[in-house]
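Hi everyone, sorry if this is the wrong subforum. Our group has a chain we'd like a structural model of before ordering constructs, and none of us has done structure prediction before. Sequence below.
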Amino acid sequence: MKKRTVLILTLCLLLQQLAAQEGTPAKTNIRVWNITEQTASVVPTVLDTSLFEFQNTDPMNRYSIANAYNGSLGSPLQSKIYFDRTEKNNFLFSRPYDAYFVALPEMLFFNTTVPYSNLEYFTAGSEANSDENFRGIFSINANKRFNFSGLYHYAGTRGLYNNQATKMTKIGLWATYSGKHYGATGVAMRQVFNNEENGGIKDEAYIRTDSLREFQTNTIPTNLDYAMSRYTNIYFYLNQKLHIANVEYQIDSTHSEFRPIATISHSIKYETAEKRYLSTQSDAAFYQNTFFDDTKTQDSAQVRSLYNTLAFSVNEGFSRWFPLSIAGYATHEYREYYHLDNTIPVRDYESNILIGAEMSKRQGKHLHFNANGELYTVGDRAGDFSLNGDVTTVFRLWNDTVSLFVEGLMKNTSASYFEETYSSNHFRWDNTFDRTLRTRFRARLGLNNSWLNASAGMGVENVSQLIYFDRNALPAQHDGNIQVLTGEAALNFNVWVFHLHNKAIYQRSSNNDILPLPDLSLYHNAFFAFKMFKKVLHTQLGADVYYNTAYYAPDYMPATGAFFLQSREKVGSFPVISAYAAFHLKTARLFFKYYHLNANWTKNYFSMPQYPIYPGRFKMGISWNLFD
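Answer:
Right subforum, don't worry. Here is the predicted structure as tokens:
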């Protein structure tokens, strides 16, 4: 009944938009940007209103085209594409949630002449095991300088298999003030991720054997029955800027504005992150070790961080003769760590001073670049450093647009606290690791014209003293170097109403025993695109497919959320094919999709050993931008 109601409301929205097409929408002017964390420098961006690929709304598909995950929406995840993996903060147990976590540099900040909101709702499956994903963003300006915005995001599922339910809630409030002499940015964000842990299904034959595949998925036995993980992250951020020496900048013959030559800023950020693993019954049969309680488990690990940053910058754009920004900053970091050792609280502390410098060009159409260097000078991480930079240039070549992107990175980092020290009911370790040194280079060349959008790129990274989770799900360090080579190509073209979008990523690890990767990952989307109803309703009818070659995909450890090495079973080498219809009308986008329609043709649709993905199911979703 709920699915039918959503479908009816969606169709009513479509009809309402069609009926109102003759009306003239209110004139709007909206500016959108991200910020850098240290100096709150503005990084211009745009709203996502693209016509294509809207049917791929799952967070894992937005994160990467190939992923290892527990099989349900919102479950812990690791990208199978090495260069797509992220570390959004230094808390070890947060990494499985990076695909869903909103870090400060990813937040959208607004300045709008009319109230703006975006509402998204996606659902999949039947009433008994449906996925629900709702997100709402609201933004309003009190005047031309002060903006207030908010976010509410809920996603969850009961899961198709036993003990697979997830629930994700994100609530955020933020505000900006952009004055002639003073500016401020304030953010408050709370993000909570709950997922039941089933340890995977006990017998893969239920998926692989035809005679057993007739069983209902919720009758397949799982390794754990009463376990769950909870990751909570809360952060508060405030940046204040004092602009110095405003000068008048002539935009054109009739318009000018005042721009500051220099800015002094102070940022303060408080963040707390906690991972809990709870089991209300004995799970000793699943784990190799149980140290202090074989009837239940209540593990907890937490880090609290306080950052203070003072920065000075000479700003881009105050003069045509100074088209870049130069900034220097110093940060004091204080962290407090907490975990349990046989129910006894363990607390440790860490204090560091970091200095950094940045040079960037983010305005203009043809050339953007950013170069940043940081060095820890005092404290537990003294000697750690990072150097990174990227350049993007766009130029015309005859009737085509050509783009070039180049990125470089060198980073020397100490092990995080919990990589070296941790105690819990099932796991404990006490390590002393050397620093990990990463050097990376990537380049990508793109070509765009009226019928073709193509790009090709390559990347190489060398990692010395890599820290990983071994086959016992314990942190370990590789004594030596590992190289990762990748090549990627994207080819999107259209002929009349036919479109074909393709992406291919090739990877090669020099040590597959320590860093296994699939050789090839593919995404293809073939569809017909045309307009209906007086050419105002953009319509797409098509099918897409995801595929990666078989390899020793990671295993997953529920108690720590770690993805660790295994060598007993290769996973992959099966396509996931879906058919869909998508529509775009004015400010509304919607889709209907049947996911994994080939599930009955294959017998090995596992993301990781013992973790199957969803078989065939119906999905639909809508996103609506409102300007009033």
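For your construct planning: The chain has a mean pLDDT of 92. The first helix runs from residue 2 to 19.
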